[in-house]
Amino acid sequence: MPVRVSMSDDPFSALLAPPPDEMPAERAARLREEENAKRISDAIDEEISRQRAEQRRERCVKRLTMSGCTGKSTTLKNFQLMNSRKAFRAERAQWRTVIQLNIVRSFRLILEAMAEAQAATTSPATSSPSVSPRLRPADDPDPDPNMPHLTSELLLLKMKLSPLIQIEETLLRALDPEGSSVFGAPYLTALTNLPNPERPRGKGVKEIAVNSCAWGTKFSRLLSGEARNSTDVRDEGLEPDEPSHVLHACSDDMIRLWKDPIVREVLDRLKLRLEEMPGFFLDDLERVTDLNYMPSDADIVRARIKTLGVTEYRFTVKGGLYCISPFVPRSLTSNAVGNSISRDWRLYDVGGQRSCTAAWVPFFDDMDAIIFLAPISCFDQVLEEDPSVNRLEDSVLLWKSIVSNPVLARTNIILFLNKCDIMRRKLAAGIKLSKYIVSYGDRPNDFESTSTYLRRKFAQIHKDHSVQKREFYAHFTSVVDIEATTKILADVQDSILRANLRGTGLIL
Ligand SMILES: Nc1nc2c(ncn2[C@@H]2O[C@H](COP(=O)(O)OP(=O)(O)OP(=O)(O)O)[C@@H](O)[C@H]2O)c(=O)[nH]1
Ligand SMILES: [Mg+2]
Question: Which positions bind GTP (predicted)?
Fold first, then answer.
């Protein structure tokens, strides 16, 4: 039973109480001393809260990054384009919606950055009530004193673009009418090598995720030919819907805002590099907001929607040898007639978040090949799930656990060192690999040296940890580059097929 102690029972109050016979001079001295002690105590409290705010700020920066996003689904899209181009294009209506959501998300970030700039340049006394507390986080202590002032024209543009936020719900519903599988997830931002940590931002901006069962089955039906024969698919136009009209109406204002030098400076000051974020379409606004906009293959490949769980895709490939996926199981059926080979393939696309990796396990024991994507450009980012872990380091650990898995001892593992285009841009911008991978030391910070070094590291792990000897296959990729990726995938599928045919006695 807890014991309640009244003030009069408190032994400290008796000890600290002034003496009953205190003289006025003694009392004045005591009060001065107490006042002095209080000043020191307040200063200490102030320092403690300053340090706490600093720590909070660092934590927020890390929390804003996320895992996954290595390029698995993008690789799969390339594969779909190689195998089932017409059928894939028939899904353009959904991709248009995803691209529209990507645009809305980019603008949410811009509007949020503007609100932050507005708050930073407005004194608390005159602070506008329109600045929402969500956009101006309470734990964001020090506004940047050099933040540029937003002109009244910019503030007007900001207001005129508010309908964009309202169409987000409609777009989400269009992707998943039941609303069960598409939902938001924290947005990604990169850590930089700049001395000051970034402020928390993007907290309210959600990334769209899709559960494999909803969106994925559409694709698997399509690939398996259940949905419709690919030759029946016509390049018909898409009817403009409500979000398309809103985006079209906002188009000029969006372009003006995105091109505005003050807005760019605000984004720079907040280290918000939208161009490096997934689903970036702001340089194509005029085209993608056209009422008759039809996503191109390149647009579809660049569109970003996060995968949850595992999605299986089944299809038959006749004659051609275009097949590859993150996961291809061994249970392929095959029949060879002359030079023409017809095979049933199963591909698996997996959600990359750590919480999703358990879902992979049941798919592990029957694989012919695994394509492992390591996003080498992520060397300066941390995991959303665990901000103490560097993303590239996490990828290396996953690589080690896959190559050392006895169940996969005979599986071909093909490494894609991906996002080389972003890696090149980061290195050119002066971001140093050695700052994040200390073992890199003072080697040159160019693409050739850094990528070769990383490839060697992955190869060493493959050699040291494979249960039995096997070939090391690795490619430097930028899987948003369709042409280059098609060539690599054709090569890869060829080696998988050869290995598989060798196993079944079809090739010696
Ligand atoms: N610039 C560039 N962007 C890439 C590359 N690979 C993927 N992306 C983009 O990165 C984003 C994420 O790619 P996804 O293929 O969705 O990644 P994922 O591994 O499937 O991610 P999860 O589903 O979250 O596990 C997309 O917007 C892609 O367009 C690349 O090599 N270069
Ligand atoms: Mg994915």
Answer: 349-353, 418-421
* Ligand 1 centre distance from Cα of residue 69 (Å): 5
Using the mean position of ligand 2's atoms as its centre, give its distance from the Cα of residue 353 in Å.
9
- 277 C-alpha to center of ligand 1: Å? 9
314 and 297 both lie in a single domain: no
Residues with CB under 6 A from ligand 1: 68-74, 278-279, 302, 304, 306-307, 351-352, 418-419, 421-422, 478-480
Cα-to-centroid distance, 395 and ligand 2 (Å): 15
Residue 76 lies in a domain: yes
Nearest CA to ligand 1 atom 10: 278
In a domain, 58, yes or no: no
Burial class (CB in 10 A: 0-12, 13-18, 19+), 159: exposed
- Which structural domain, as residue segments, surrounds residue 482? 309-504
pLDDT in tens, 190-220: 222 222 333 334 444 456 665 544 444 444 4
Q: Whose CA is nearest to atom 30 of ligand 1?
A: 419
Q: Is 390 helix (H, G, I), strand (E, B) or coil?
A: strand
pLDDT at 412 > cutoff 60: yes
The b-or-e profile of 99-120 (16+ CB within 10 A means b, else e) is bbbbbbbbbbbbbbbbbbbbbb
Residues 71, 197, single domain; the answer is: yes
Max CA-CA distance within the chain? Answer: 114
Structural domain ending residue among the three candidates 273, 302, 331: 302
More confident position, 149 or 65: 149
Which of 65, 70, 73, 74 has most ligand 1 atoms within 8 Å of CB, for mutation? 74
- Mutation probe of ligand 1 site: the residue of 65, 66, 67, 69 with most atoms within 8 A of C-beta: 69
Report the 3 state secondary structure along 391-441.
HHHHHHHHHHHHHCCHHHCCCEEEEEEECHHHHHHHHHCCCCHHHHCHHHC
Query: Is residue 285 in some structural domain?
Result: yes
Of 302, 325, 352, which marks where a domain is finished?
302
Q: What is the pLDDT of residues 102-127, one digit of tens each?
A: 999 999 999 989 998 988 887 554 44
ipTM field: 0.99
Backbone torsion region of residue 353, taken as left when φ is above 0, otherwise alpha when ψ lies between -120 and 50, otherwise beta: beta
